[in-house]
TrEMBL record:
Keyword Acyltransferase: yes
EC number: 2.3.1.-
A molecular function (GO) term: acyltransferase activity
Name of the protein in its database record: GNAT family N-acetyltransferase
Amino acid sequence: MVTTTFLDVQPPPEPLLGDDWTLRPLVDADHGARAYAVAPRGGGPPVELRLYRVQRHPLRACYPYGAYDIAVGLVLVQDTQSMAGRLLNDLVPALFAADPHCRRVVAAPAEDDTALQAAFEAGGFRRVAEADLPNGSVVLFTAEPSWLADLPTALDDMPH
């Protein structure tokens, strides 16, 4: 049996979100995660943001991940769905800028959490598949940098 191991990659970097957001680190991060309370600069309820390397998250069983791929988790409170979509639109480019080795940012909201799924779609993530994890069924969402997302995948477009 061949086993593949990755280098011990550092936890995801802190994203630089700009002046529109306040980002407050939370101390209860686990398993190499980074956790933050994020709120709009002008005020409003925060959302909890967790960032993991996929290799340290149950999502590692769902797709052939890269060592630097980042998993995003959000906890929404009442009336934060549209704000979460705006946050994700700013977060994804900030993560790719902070970690040029990252080729994919993924999320896996629960299959029955339609509000969180809508927030990821509004944030530019693509719905990819459904998967079963130890804690329940999820919907896998992904965002990729343009250099990767724009690569042709049709056989006719491949060099011969």
